[in-house]
Amino acid sequence: MRYALIPFGFVFYLWYLVIFIPITILFAITVMILAPVWPKKYSRAMRVFPKAWGWIGIRIVFCPVYVYGREKIHDQPGIIISNHQSLFDILAGLGFYPVDFLFLAKKEVFQIPLVGTAMRKLGYISVNRSNARQASRSLEIVEEQVRQNNRVLIYPEGTRSKDARKLLPFKAGAFQVAEKGKFPIFPIVLYGTQETRPMHSNVLLFPHRIAIQVLDAITVENELHPANEGSRLSEKEKLAGIRAVVEKAYLQLADNKGLKAANV
After folding, report:
1. Which of 251, 179, 250, 163 is nearest to 215 (CA)?
2. What is the DSSP secondary structure assignment for residue 162, as one 8-state letter?
C-alpha cells in the first residue's frame, strides 16, 4: 500500500462509521421489534433486512460489485462455503450473494449490543470455537436448519486469512454436516474485500472492486464430496481438493482484479 493513501483511508473509515453505525442500530432495532410479531410461516421474509443492511454497507463504500455464475444457483438446501479475508465478507455475502442463507458465526459476534440480539431473532447460528461440545451442538443446529430447507453459510477457514494470496486450511465442520446429511456443498468465492478493509489495520477503508463467483455445486456424486463412498480419495484428500478448487478460483479472480470470471 502506498503510504500517501493512508490519510484518505483513515478519514474514509471515520466517515463510514458516522454513516453506518446509525444504519446498523436502526436495522437491529427494527428486527427486534418485528421478530416477535412476525408470522413464522413468513420468517424468511425477515431476511430482507440483513440483505438490505449488507447492500447498504457495501454501497456506501462505493465498491462496484460483480457477480458471476448466477446460473449455477440451485434451488435446494445445502451448505454454502466461502473464503474469508475481511470483516466486509459478511456484508458482501448478505447484500450480494445471489442466494438466501443463514450463517454460522463465532459467539463473540453475538455479544455485540443490539446486533447480536437481532442475529438471534433472524436465526443465525452462534459457535463457541473454544468449547468442543458447544461447537458440536452448533453443527447439529446447522444440520437441523438445512433439513428445514435452509442454506447455511460457513467459512471453512474458521478465521480470516492474513495472506491475500493464500487460503487457510479448511476445517472439517462444514463437511461433516454435509457428509452426515448428504447435503450438496455450494462454493462461492469472494475477492476484493481484503482490499476494501485491509487485514493489517482496523482503521483504514478504501473503495475497491468486489467480485463474487458461484462455482459448480459439489453433490454426493462428486468424488470430492465427503459422503461419496465410492471415491478413492481419503477424507483429508477430499477436504484438500475442495479447498484447491476454491483457491484456484480466488487466485484467478485476484489476478484479473475481478473483471472477469475465473475459469474453473
Report:
1. 250
2. S
Residues 6+ apart with CB under 8 A from 211: 65, 66, 67, 68, 190, 191, 192, 253, 258, 259
81, 187 Cβ separation under 8 angstroms? yes
Beta bridge partners of residue 183, listed in sequence order: none
- C-alpha closest to that of 80 among 138, 1, 154, 170: 154
DSSP string, 97-115: -SS--EEEEEGGGGGSTTH
**pLDDT, tens digit (0-9, with 9 covering 90-100), for 207-238:** 999 999 999 999 999 999 999 999 999 999 99
pLDDT for position 194: 92
Check whether domain 3-255 has CATH 3.40.1130, yes or no:
yes
Place of cell 475442495: 242
| Sheet strand arrangement including 65-68 | 65-68, 210-214, 185-191, 78-82, 151-154, 102-106, 125-127
Single-letter amino acid, residue 164: A
Q: How far apart are CA 96 and CA 190, in angstroms?
A: 11
Query: Whole-structure pTM over 0.85, yes or no?
Result: yes
Q: What angle do CA 15, 18, 23 make, to 5 degrees?
A: 125
Q: Which three cell numbers stand for residue 236?
A: 483429508
The Cα 22–Cα 5 span in angstroms is: 27
- In 3D space, the residue among 77, 94, 81 whose CA is nearest the CA of residue 153 turns out to be 81
Handedness of CA 81, 72, 182, 100 (dihedral sign): positive
Average pLDDT over residues 90-101: 97
Identify whether the C-beta of residue 192 lies closer than 8 Å to the C-beta of residue 85.
no
Whether 1 has a pLDDT exceeding 70, the answer reads no
DSSP per residue, 120-135 = HHHT-EEE-TT-HHHH
